[in-house]
Amino acid sequence: MNRRTLLSIPFLGALFGLAGCSRTIGVYRYRVTVEVETPQGVRSGSSVMEISYGEQKSFEGAGYKAHVTEKGEAVYVDLGQGKYVVALLETGRIQPLKALSEQLGWDDGSIDELDYRQGKLTGKVVLKGGEIPTMVTFSNPSDPTSFRIVYETKMNRDMGNRTAYYDEKRERRYRYREIIQGNEIVRDDFANVFGTGYKLKSVIIEVVDPRTPVTEEIVKRFPVMYPKLYAEETKGGRTFPPNPPFEVFSSHLRRGF
Fold first, then answer.
1. Is residue 204 included in any domain, yes or no?
2. What is the bridge-based pairing of β-strands 147-158 and 135-138?
3. Distance CA 176, CA 162 (A)
4. What domain range includes position 207?
5. Where on the phi/psi map is residue 71: left (φ > 0), alpha (ψ -120 to 50), or beta?
6. For residue 238, is it within any domain?
7. Number of domains in the chain
8. Is 30 helix (H, G, I), strand (E, B) or coil?
9. Residue 250: HSE in the Cβ half-sphere, 13 Å Cα cutoff
10. Phi/psi class of residue 218: alpha, beta or left (left: φ > 0; alpha: ψ in -120 to 50)?
11. By the 8 A CB rule, do 242 and 218 touch?
């Protein structure tokens, strides 16, 4: 047996050990609906997404860490007359656990709390302030740099102090309590961008039947732009300077597929 073989045995053992240390607490499908007031009446768009919450033993073996996977697309709202707005992923708080925990009366919106509640996440809530995702439109739907921010919010988050505790199996776990220091609407340019009579009405998150199909429309909406963005990012074609200005990325439009 050579040295390479000797080294590979514990390495493979570690890999197999790690593979068994992740646990899924719940998988949910939820709908994000954006409603916009227009001179022709209320126009809306929605996107059904899927999210999985779980935990995974840390690589060092000291406690557990959250493990979240997402699959979904940005919300596209057709405003009529060739106008549209897109509510971007990875902005605001368009995830059901954080959004619904307060309404459900839970202590916090952590995965640990979800586990304590036996994964029973349900309900519907209207997002407010910094919870609302950033929204953009494009003057050229083939050019990601042609975006214009229509609605922008800011959520100042502080994870607070980490508290260690032990579960019934004497495994060390950590709880973080999220502290929201301020929710701000930084920009509301619906009327400036689209004209008088255009205004954001609401953004709603609702947990839906797990059999509801996940929305797959954004590539059809942006058949040139999305593949271009994805190709540039996966091939390292974009640079990221310190403190860069806001840009639209492929993960703002689609992720998890």
1. yes
2. antiparallel
3. 5
4. 23-255
5. beta
6. yes
7. 1
8. strand
9. 20
10. alpha
11. no
Is 4 within a domain? no
pTM, full prediction: 0.79
The residue count for the chain: 257
Residue type for position 238: R
The tens-digit pLDDT sequence of the chain (257 residues) is 443 343 444 444 444 344 456 789 999 999 999 999 999 999 999 999 999 998 887 665 556 677 889 999 999 999 999 999 999 998 887 889 988 988 888 877 888 889 888 899 999 999 988 889 999 999 999 999 999 999 998 765 444 444 444 444 445 454 545 444 456 788 999 999 999 999 999 999 999 999 999 999 999 999 999 999 999 888 765 555 566 788 899 999 999 99
93-114 as b/e: b if 16+ CB within 10 A: bbbbbbbbbeeeebebbbbbbb
Instruction: Return the closest-CA partner of residue 29 out of 235, 252, 206, 185.
Output: 206
In a domain, 13, yes or no: no
Strand partners, 171: none
Q: What is the DSSP string of 6-28?
A: HHHHHHHHHHHHHHTTEEEEEEE
Residue 146 is encoded by which pair of tokens? 């042609």
Residue 50 CB partners (closer than 8 Å, separation 6+): 27, 28, 29, 30, 70, 71, 72, 214, 256
Residue with tokens 């952590």: 110
